[in-house]
Each structure stands twice: as structure tokens, then as C-alpha cells.
Write a structure and sequence with these properties.
This protein is about 35% helix and about 25% strand. It has 10 helices and 17 strands. A hairpin with a 5-residue loop joins strand 9 and strand 10 (about 155-165). The protein is elongated and about 85 Å long. The model is unreliable at about 1-10 and about 230-260 (pLDDT under 50).
């Protein structure tokens, strides 16, 4: 009976491991050592959801532990984390600039502002230990997210991870050996980054979400008030499809799955609409041909369903021109639409936020006149 149990155990382990059969020695079964992590500690977080996509500047990490390889580790650790977050699609633009030395928070915020970023992401490493393939490897990461405009701390999270060296498990018919990763820091940092992305996904809207174009007040009202499931017929929230973390041991996978299916990871339900509002060439002045469409927006915003609601007006540009020029022009065009609605339709200016995305969020990559016209749009979102 004992032999049968051991044989079944061996079959189970070999399903997810490497088996080294030898003639003279017992069989060796190798499995990769899993990442063990502390609970994610979120010390600071926003009180409300974010309803417009944001851009982020990712600064190299600050290594707080004394080390001669400070500069190289600062860039290497941050790049691993940044790449893991790029996979999560948190922001419309996420820029990482390797080789930038840390010269204080004010300097980092200034760099983020000069790049037009909404957020500064700054990580700290208070402790790390490199065991490579012979000993434990461990690291602690503290991540702060700041509003680039005013320097306010929006998020502060910390988590530790470790890959432990373990002695072989000897059985009668085989030996189970725990194989250490050849890139342990990559494995741990990616696992921590995936955990830290979960609460941000519950705060940020989907940066790739597309809205329908509206041509009338009825279209605007319907798109801003009808539940998404009724509009699409799907009723399925893609934000719940969080990536699995194969680095976790089986008991942690079950706990992590519960976290990912919770409300914390569900993106905000943002309702919006695209508007084909045209402007004079290289100017923020609304083309008179588009007055009727802006009037339709004003009529919809004064309807019983939408009156008094907070909205975001976003301007978009086509691919012509520089990034800086298009960001400024698209913001000015959004301001023009806001001013029109305030002056003619009595919309409360305190309820209207404006933003310019420039050419960072095109609907298509085409170069025809019609393609560029679609990209040169105005987007309207509810922000509550």
C-alpha cells in the first residue's frame, strides 16, 4: 500500500516538474521554488474612483540599502516592475526613462510635469538580498504614486517577496529537489508588481475603452445613461479577467484568486460618447458647422437624467504635429466646448473638467482624411 501511495505521489509531482532518471542513483524530481510574499499593505489610497484615463511617468527606483551597484540596480529593478505594469494596461501612456538619477521628489515631479504626465510613479527598495541560485533571494518594494500637477500622494503600497532555498525531500524511490530561479529578482518583482496593479485597476478606467459616436441629443443622453450591458448586449466586465500568477504556490493561488475577483479589481463603470465636433484649422475655435452637435450636447446635459451631473470633456488630435503642440491644442479645444456649453446652455462650469490627450489615444492608425477626422474628436464622459 505504501509503495502504491509513493508511486502515485511521484506521478503527481512529475506532471509539473522535471524528472532526472539515472541508472545508479534514485530518481530526482525537480520543481521550481515559488515566490512567497507578505500581504500587500496599502497605506494611502484615493477616496473615489478615477473616471478619465491617466498618463504616468515611471522613475527609476530609489535603492535605500547601501550598495556599490546602486545606479544599475535602480534602473534594473524599476524596468522589471515597469514592464510588468505595461502588461496590465493601466495607463494610456506609461513612460520609463532609464538612467535618470534620483535628485529628490521635487525634481522627479518636475520631470513628470515636463513630459505632460498626470502621475509620477516612484518606487523605493529599503531591503534586498541576492542569493542567486545557492541561497534565499528577497526584496521589499515600497511604491508611491503622486499627482504630478500638485505633488499630492495618491497611493502608497509596500510588499515583500522571497524565494527560499530548501533542502531536498528524500523518499524511498525518488528525491524531490527544489530548483532556485536563475533570475530570482525578476520573478519576485514581477509577482509584487502584479499584486500592486490590482488596486490601481479598481481605481482607473480602462484606457482602451472605445465609445460610440453621437449625432443627436437623444444619442448623447442614451450613451451617458444606459447601462453598459444594455448598450453592448454582453454584460461582461473584462476588468475581472485578471492575469494568473504562476509564481504563487497552490495555497496562495486560491487566496490571490479571491482577491482578484473582489470589487477591488473591478474597473470603474465609465459611460461616455464620442463627438465629431470640428474646429478651424490649427485653432481652438469651433467650426460653425458643428454648432448643431454642441447644441445637442447642451440639450442632453439639461435633461432631467443628466442635469447636475459631473462630466469630463476631452479633446483629441490626429497624428500631425508634435506631441506638445497637440496636447495644448486638444486641451484648448475642450475648453472651447466647455465655454460654449456654459455660455449658451447654462451648464455649471464647476461640474465640467477639461483635458487634452493630443494624439496619444487615436481610434485608428490610418492616414486618410476620414481616419484623421475620426481621431480629431471630442470625448464626453460622466465622472460620477
Amino acid at each position: 500500500m505504501k509503495k502504491a501511495i509513493l508511486f502515485l505521489l511521484l506521478l503527481t509531482m512529475t506532471a509539473c516538474a522535471y524528472v532526472d532518471p539515472t541508472i545508479n542513483d534514485s530518481i530526482k524530481v525537480y520543481t521550481d521554488t515559488a515566490v512567497r510574499k507578505s500581504s500587500l499593505q496599502v497605506a494611502v489610497h484615493p477616496k473615489s474612483k478615477q473616471y478619465r484615463p491617466l498618463t504616468a511617468y515611471f522613475h527609476p527606483f530609489v535603492i535605500q540599502q547601501q550598495n556599490s551597484d546602486y545606479f544599475q540596480l535602480s534602473n534594473a529593478f524599476a524596468e522589471i516592475f515597469n514592464n510588468a505594469w505595461l502588461e496590465e494596461r493601466l495607463f494610456t501612456i506609461q513612460e520609463f526613462q532609464s538612467g535618470t538619477p534620483y535628485q529628490g521628489l521635487d525634481a522627479a515631479l518636475d520631470r513628470a510635469r515636463r513630459r505632460g504626465a498626470d502621475l509620477l510613479i516612484l518606487g523605493y527598495v529599503p531591503y534586498f538580498y541576492a542569493g542567486h541560485t545557492v541561497d534565499d533571494t528577497a526584496i521589499t518594494i515600497k511604491l508611491n504614486v503622486y499627482a504630478a500637477g500638485n505633488g499630492a500622494l495618491l497611493w502608497s503600497m509596500v510588499q515583500s517577496g522571497r524565494i527560499e532555498s530548501k533542502n531536498p525531500d528524500d523518499y524511498i524511490y525518488f528525491t524531490h529537489e527544489h530548483r532556485l530561479s536563475t533570475a530570482p529578482f525578476t520573478k519576485i518583482i514581477r509577482s509584487i508588481a502584479k499584486d500592486m496593479a490590482i488596486p490601481l485597476k479598481g481605481w482607473l478606467p480602462d484606457p482602451d475603452k472605445k465609445f460610440q459616436f453621437a449625432k443627436s441629443a437623444r444619442d448623447v443622453e442614451a450613451n451617458l445613461t444606459t447601462p453598459e450591458a444594455a448598450m453592448t448586449g454582453a454584460g461582461e466586465n473584462d476588468a475581472k479577467k485578471m492575469p494568473s500568477d504562476n509564481d504563487l504556490p497552490s495555497d496562495d493561488k486560491m487566496q490571490d484568486k479571491g482577491n482578484k475577483d473582489s470589487d477591488e479589481s473591478v474597473r470603474p463603470d465609465v459611460k461616455g460618447v464620442n463627438l465629431d465636433i470640428q474646429f478651424e484649422f490649427n485653432k481652438a475655435s469651433i467650426d460653425p458647422k458643428s454648432y448643431a452637435l454642441v447644441d445637442a450636447v447642451g440639450e442632453a446635459l439639461n435633461s432631467p437624467e443628466l442635469k447636475g451631473k459631473k462630466i469630463i470633456i476631452a479633446g483629441h488630435a490626429d497624428q500631425r504635429g508634435t506631441d506638445a503642440y497637440n496636447l495644448k491644442l486638444s486641451k484648448n479645444r475642450a475648453d472651447s466646448v466647455k465655454q460654449y456649453l456654459v455660455n449658451k446652455w447654462g451648464v455649471d462650469p464647476a461640474l465640467v473638467e477639461t483635458v487634452g490627450y493630443g494624439k496619444s489615444r487615436p481610434l485608428n492608425q490610418g492616414s486618410t482624411a476620414e481616419d484623421m477626422r475620426m481621431n480629431r474628436r471630442v470625448e464626453l464622459r460622466l465622472s460620477e
